[in-house]
Amino acid sequence: MKIVLLEDVKKVGKKGDIVEVSDGYGRNYLIARKLGKEATNAAINDVKLKKATEARKKEDELNEAKELGLKIKASSITLAIKAGEGGKTFGSVSTKEIAKAVSDQLGIEVDKKKMVLDEPIKSLGTHIIKIKLHPKVTTELSVKVEGE
């Protein structure tokens, strides 16, 4: 019996898979517990349409991330931090402050959790930070830190 899985089933398959199972297992377990439904032509076509829609959506997200990455890489932001004599700073610049500056200066919303700082920025000057916009897209942002 062919079944279209509606949920992930251990040792059988993942959601959306079309699997061949015994008649009893299919009727008495998978269909009864709404883990799957019989693989009719309509059900198979529905699965194919959903997979195609998901693929298109993922492709669109990737393209948007690439465009945003190019826009971010081409720009830079400026932050002001209190500094003493000789350029020694009081405190450091965090990803939260950088995310707020990107939002204010560039008009782009970037999650602070997606920013990768090896160590907090504690010196004046220009620093390059990495931003992971998508699992396949990483970009760099130039942050200029000035003393107040």
Automatic annotation (TrEMBL):
Q: Does the keyword Transmembrane helix apply?
A: no
- Which cellular components does GO assign to this protein? ribonucleoprotein complex; ribosome
Question: Ribosomal protein L9 domain location, by residue?
Answer: 13-40
Matching InterPro entries, A to Z? Answer: Ribosomal_bL9 (IPR000244), Ribosomal_bL9/RNase_H1_N (IPR009027), Ribosomal_bL9_bac/chp (IPR020594), Ribosomal_bL9_C (IPR020069), Ribosomal_bL9_C_sf (IPR036791), Ribosomal_bL9_N (IPR020070), Ribosomal_bL9_N_sf (IPR036935)
Keywords, alphabetical = Ribonucleoprotein, Ribosomal protein, RNA-binding, rRNA-binding
Report whether Transferase shows up as a keyword of the record: no
GO biological process annotations for this chain's record? translation
Q: What GO annotations for molecular function exist for this entry?
A: rRNA binding; structural constituent of ribosome
Q: Which SUPFAM superfamilies match?
A: L9 N-domain-like, Ribosomal protein L9 C-domain
* HAMAP family membership: Ribosomal_bL9
Q: What NCBIfam families is this protein classified in?
A: L9
Q: Which family does it belong to?
A: Belongs to the bacterial ribosomal protein bL9 family.
Function as written in the Swiss-Prot or TrEMBL entry: Binds to the 23S rRNA.
Q: What is this protein called?
A: Large ribosomal subunit protein bL9
What organism does the record attribute this protein to? Petrocella atlantisensis
Q: What is the lineage of its organism?
A: Bacteria, Bacillati, Bacillota, Clostridia, Lachnospirales
